[in-house]
Records
---
Amino acid sequence: MATARGRFEVQLAATGGEPPGENPHLGRNLVDKRYFGDLDASSHGEMLTAITPVEGSAGYVLLERVEGNLSGRPGSFVLQHYGRLTRGTATLTIEVVPDSGTDGLVGLQGHMTIRIETDGTHFYEFDYRLPASSGGP
């Protein structure tokens, strides 16, 4: 496997969900990201959230189409997020949707981890594999 590293910026825009006060509160957001570093790309996606009345407990799912260059290879792919916060303890799984890669990223497989610094800066680490026919690791 190869590893791509860098930072990203994210913008959320609420697009619906339930009115405040519903428990658990269900929400919907549009997500726009810009990746820098080994992954030089932009992404657009949609996130669904559930925020419970228990402090620090929530969940989200997100699908995002990433378009740009991964270590110099052009193409696009889709990331699927599954996040959960249980009374302040977070778990997050981010994986490439199988067979979603295009152009130089056909056959892409992998998973991503993210880290958010106290100043709000977001970083990613993306462990991935490309088939030999795509010229990947």
---
Amino acid sequence: MQPIEQRAMSPEIIKKIDEAGVIAVLVIDDVKHAVPVAKALLKGGVNAIELTLRTPAAIEAARAIKSEVPEITLGIGTVLTIGQVKAAAELGADFAVSPGCNPRVIAAAREHDLSFAPGIMTPTDIEIAIEQGCRVLKYFPAESSGGMNHLTNMVAPYQYLGLKFIPLGGLSMANAASYLESPIITAIGGSWIAKRPLIQAENWEAITENAKEVRKLITEIRK
């Protein structure tokens, strides 16, 4: 059997995520922090983000980044509803992700031409995603689910389908390499790079240094 037909994410976005190697996960409470944090990440070599819809400022923050920092590959996270899919598509997000695997949300993303990666943790999740034409999947929560060992064993029956994963949840510089070294990982998700308190404190220098550190690791592993 050939690799599954990819209907949920465009080849262009798949390529951008793979080249990025890391997606910085952001929680932004104030719109004024959106552009500075994006620029701080970009300065450190991280050009892909997942901006989570967990605060009232999230949509406007995403819109500001899309407008003023176009070099960023902008993802919208914690997408749980069809309405959120529509909002992400309308602001021009490059892709969206969810913590779970909801066929209705995946279908809505396809309807709005929004590249989408659903969250998986079990073989059943994977099979639902496959049926919906998804090839890039978010593995969440990664560490508490058994880390790379669990993912490797779980994916074995499906590996011939060419699936790729974005692990998120419990990742850090201490364990990032164990994920990045696997050929089934397209990019890791990192909330530690620009933690919420760092953004709130406007500590852009620390965020840039965190970004540089993970960029160096990715370069060393994928050279």
---
Amino acid sequence: MRRKATTLGLVIAAILLAASTSLAHAKLVSSTPLAGATLTTSPTSISLEFSVRVQSRMSSIAVTDQSGASIIVGKLVESDQGKLISVPLPEILAGSYRVDWRALSADDHMIDGNFEFSVGEASQMIPTGSADVDHSGMDHSAHESAPSINWPQSLIRWLIYIGMMLLTGGLGFRLFVLGSVNARTETLDARLIGIFAAAGLLAISGLLAALVLQTQMVTGSFGTSQAMSVLRETSFGPPWLLQICGATVAFVLLILASARNTIRRKIALWSAFGLSLAALLGPSLSGHARAAWDEYSLAILSDWLHLVAGSMWIGGLGVIAFAIAEALRDTDRLAAQASLSAIIKQFTNIAIPATVLLAITGLYNTWIHVEGPSALVGTTYGLVLLAKVAISGVMIVLGGINTFLLRPRLVAESGALADAGETRLFSSVRFEMLLAIIVLLLAAILAFLPPAREHKPISASKEPGVQEAR
């Protein structure tokens, strides 16, 4: 009993420590000239300094005068390891000017903003959709576009997460759980391969949609040439190719695994599992973890292990919820209950270490980018993260009930009581899987929100002189 309580305590601790997948969008730190500054002479350049590296090839700085006419600037250059971008500026006349900028951060998220400055005696500032206020000397980050939930990209990332985790974790369940308890049948294998193939197809479709959205975000339109430019010239490209190739080849292998040749099926399943593990590295190589890697050397590895551990947990739940119940329905009841008990026990032996790994990697990720408790309740990112952790906590409790209460009763009881226990067990697992799908949606939303340490609190009122972000 004490051992069970210790194990359950470790699992609950794991979920409380689990975090989302890593550091940061770029944040504008300062500009030259300063926002709202009045200069006595014409500046020779416009410079923007960011908190992390930005991808200069897909970034831009544009300048217009008070009439809206464009000022021709020089070629954009980068320095300070990509954290500083600037454009040469020709000599300009006295008057007011507006700078509009866009920057693609190291984690492949686009940020933008604008500010004004004057040369000589300040004239009427260029209208920007809000009241004129004095910005001189203010923190320039106040002029970035306000962070918000990117629903199209979040929903696409959600579909990719579902597909990849069902594919990777489901294959892991087939190889490490069903193989160990010898509970496989030809009918069950056929059903599982169909589920895995559908999961791979879902991931492939999501990745293609993600390329369309990323291309439109970066270039403003979509076409073959624009997509190829994004794949060649941004850090989004190589990880995306890794994911699409891994998922596609895994899908083809699963089609081959539907043959009755046992050796060929075994090779195909193991190969597909290895490819799915490699494809899971894609999000870690292109998102927040990649931005953190310059400063935290284990960020990418920690992020990937977090995804792998989550896949083994969630993918296994999916197999139990959608395949095992159907496979056992038409078999001998006593044999079915014995098989189910053995399956749950073996899955627990994998799920507990996976959840502990979630704890270790989650703690490291939290240390990277969550500034403190106040950041969790005062920002959009923090609130979404708290919701994710809370729902995951319910999943942990359900998992403990399934393992330590329902499974032992299933073994001890017989007849109608055992049938009722089996029904309760599957109902609990299906509800746990539903919660897992919600958790993946929240994780997808977090992937496109700036981390808590870089948000301005929701409750904070506008300070005097700070312009509403646009």
---
Amino acid sequence: MEDRTQAIQALATKRWRVSLMLSGAMMFIYFGFILLIAFNKPLLGSLVIPGLSLGILLGVLVITSAWILIFIYVRWANNSYDNEIARLSRK
């Protein structure tokens, strides 16, 4: 019983670690974008191609990165976390 409790605690710690790492990555991306808006508007206003500014491109990349980080978490949860929970449930 003690081993199972330790395994569940270790799994919970791993889940928190993954969640905090991905949340930290999203916060870094988002606040980096916001800081660029606040302190370097001329850079974001520069055109990458006619009709597309760097600010719009980076805004799309911020949204896309959120989707990618969510996908990474869901893949990790489905492939690792859920399998480990199922294994611990059978004990």
